[in-house]
Amino acid sequence: MTSSSSSKSRWSLQGTTALVTGGTRRIGHAIVEELAELGAPIHTCSRNATELDKCLREWEALGFQVTGSFCDVSSRPEREKLMEKVSSIFGDKLNILFMIQVHINIRDATCAIYISLIVRVQKNNAGTNTWKSRVDYTAEDIQAIMETNFVSAYHLSQLAHPLLKASGMGNVVLISSVAGVVAMYSGTVYAASKGAINQLTKNLACEWAKDNIRANSVAPCYIKTSLEEHKRIGEPKEVSSLVAFLCMPAASYITGQVISVDVGMTLNGFYPTNTRILIELQPATTLLGELEENERAREGRREDDKQQQQQKQRVSTGRNSSRHWWNQRNRIELDRCLREWEGFGLLRHGLHLRCDFPIRTGEVDGEGAVNQLTKNLACEWAKDNIRTNCVASWLIKTHLVEFLWKDKEFTEEVISRTPLRRIGDPKEVSSLVTFLCLPAASYITGQVISVDGGFTVNGFCPTND
Fold it and tell me: What residues pair up with 118 in beta bridges, in sequence order?
């Protein structure tokens, strides 16, 4: 298999099967179409038969392989009936189980306004919520919310396990909420149900890894932040693209992660995100001076960008107009890589650069600093339309750590504590980096995402039989 065809297969869902609950509205609808566009046959369900029939006709006209059935996922008998249907359609195998649980039901649709946030809550697909004072929830309220938002997801995952295991490459993706990550004015029981979903994700990742099943959670937030370049509500496509990526072979070493799709809302502590707040916090003369300096700096950067773009246009030739600069401290390795890339038809320029980064005890502290730097840059630079994310990899098969694998005892210890029970490959890191740089990830910023086979979420869960 050539490098090109291998790369395409890693970014495809061709031949995989998927169950998407709540697939006729908003996020669920976007996910059905995203997965279908990538080649996956899909079965979806809805508690609105008219809506379901309409969507099925539209998808058929688009050439998508989508089937559907009526189901209220809050009903245990209907969940069991749904999985029987899915099993018969896909031949007792299932690659992707996606469960959406983000329905908010607020009578007056009131928006809660904070210092720099306008929290806007929308009605969505498959879950439920009741907006009340914390002390006013009845036993019936609690039971209804937990049954729809948590119990249904838990039960469906139980029912789907044999099918996911039989596929040989199973993926569970749960829709959570940022309300399960930080405290929000979204209803105490609702937040608790989403926190339960996040913990369920981690446990499934550890317990089912031995069956080659990965589990991840996507935590969106329907908010309008006052970040200058992001005054908008996230689009369903900005959630569905992450879901699709997590189901691909390209994400094969990512499991147990709870990833917020919220344009950085959950990580912002008390960082001013608009000029009004800045004026209240700083003397006017200092503020004006800084604003003028920042504007001059932005003008300088724009001019530099313009000159660099003109230079790229001058040096680009033929059909391969995209050139990438690469630096390396080892000239021999650099020359070898450049020859390989040239053989693939890729135009690259290289720069020999000496940059020592020895492994030492303090490196762990340094990486923690990088994680926090990621979050600060995400908040500070959002106004310039710059996103910042961090990829935190576990031990990966590279020459920098190959000496460690000569120690069999060490290797066995590492694998025994890693739920997926293997060492990661560099491509499993590069694929996440690539995704985060795509327009498809435009609502993801400030995230520290581990590519570690579930190592960091495993407390004391046995990784073997």
Answer: 113, 224
CA–CA separation, 222 and 262 (whole Å): 8
Select from 158, 232, 222, 161 the least CA-distant residue to 190: 222
**Tokens for 144?**
């209804």
Per DSSP, what are the bridge partners of residue 218?
175, 259
Residues in the chain where the model's pLDDT stays below 70: 1-7, 101-134, 185-186, 222-232, 269-331, 334, 341, 343-367, 460-465
The span from the CA of 422 to the CA of 400, in Å, is 18
What is the reported pLDDT for 462? 65
Supply 465's token pair: 């039989």
Could you confirm whether 190 is annotated as catalytic?
yes
Alpha helices in 172-227 (DSSP H): 188-207
> In sequence order, what are the beta bridge partners of 69?
45
Give the type of residue at 10. R
**CB neighbours (10 Å) of residue 387?**
21
What's the pLDDT tens digit per position in 106-130? 332 222 222 222 222 222 334 444 5
Phi and psi at residue 94, to the nearest 5°: -150, 130
What single-letter DSSP state applies at residue 170? E
The tokens of 152 are what? 């249904």
**Which tens digits make up the pLDDT trace of 124-151?**
334 444 556 667 788 888 888 888 889 9
Residue 17 corresponds to which tokens in the numbers above?
């099967």
Catalytically annotated residue among 190, 222, 253, 443: 190
- The candidate with the shortest Cα–Cα distance to 219, out of 172, 250, 173, 155, is 173
Structure tokens at 29: 């609808």
